[in-house]
Amino acid sequence: MAGTAMSELNSQSTAQGTSVRYTPVAGAEPLRLGRPLVVAIDGPSGSGKSSVSKEVARRLRLAYLDTGAMYRAVAWDCLERGVDLADGGAVEAAARGLDLGLSTSPDAERILVRGADVTDAIREPRISTAVSAVATNLGVRDELIRRQRAIIAAHGRRMVVEGRDITTVVARDAEVRLLLTASEAARLRRRGAQLGGTQSAEQLHEQVVARDAKDSTVASFTQAADGVFTVDSSDLDFDQTIDAVLGVVHAAVSRPAGA
């Protein structure tokens, strides 16, 4: 990677919340081969976390963990078994006892609950409506954070992990910590396109803006914490966003210790 460009990126990226634009040199991946490389990505609904994180994991040849899918799996299990989502103790117990299996390949999403494939079922609108009741349960969060950290460790700490409080709680010691954000208008537009135009404006607002407001009471994902890079993708297409995120990764792993 060109030394001048790298130095400019470092100097621009040390301040909290600084947006980054950089195109990495082709063929530079994988980075830190044989050493830990956890890329922690936070962001609000509709910011493109999942699709971007998967592609970054492919490019860097890392495992991939969608922590949001774990909360959705708990919500699905509760609804399937008739657990009252308003009963915090029962929901926490469901999370602690959940038999959950999930793929960590960016190319093969698969979620199993008690051996049943729920990969598609956890994306249904009823789960999107119910998941905040699970995600705001502190006991559930404690249990799933424990599992998430165990998964990261089991993969030799070479993984892209995305969700809500990854940079500040789950993997606050990650080699790369990044907030991927976008304007509300961009996020609503993207989520609407993702759902194929099947949702009304009110439904989209509930799934994106209202859900974020609920989840932000227990997780930090709207503003970059100290030392966390920010990529604002409002005016970027998918490829440009990937380039920006890869630029952050290169910058973070190339910084001198303590910088």
UniProtKB/TrEMBL annotation:
SUPFAM superfamilies xrefs: P-loop containing nucleoside triphosphate hydrolases
Keyword Secreted: no
Record's keyword terms, sorted: ATP-binding, Cytoplasm, Kinase, Nucleotide-binding, Transferase
Catalytic activity annotation: dCMP + ATP = dCDP + ADP; CMP + ATP = CDP + ADP
Family, as annotated: Belongs to the cytidylate kinase family. Type 1 subfamily.
Top-level EC class: transferase
Subcellular location per the Swiss-Prot or TrEMBL entry: Cytoplasm
Entry-linked Pfam families: Cytidylate_kin
List of residues binding ATP: G43, P44, S45, G46, S47, G48, K49, S50, S51
Domain Cytidylate kinase: 39-250
Keyword presence, Zinc: no
Coiled coil regions, renumbered to chain: none
Polar residues: bias regions: 7-21
Record NCBIfam families: cmk
EC number: 2.7.4.25
Name by which UniProt lists this protein: Cytidylate kinase
Region (Disordered) location: 1-21
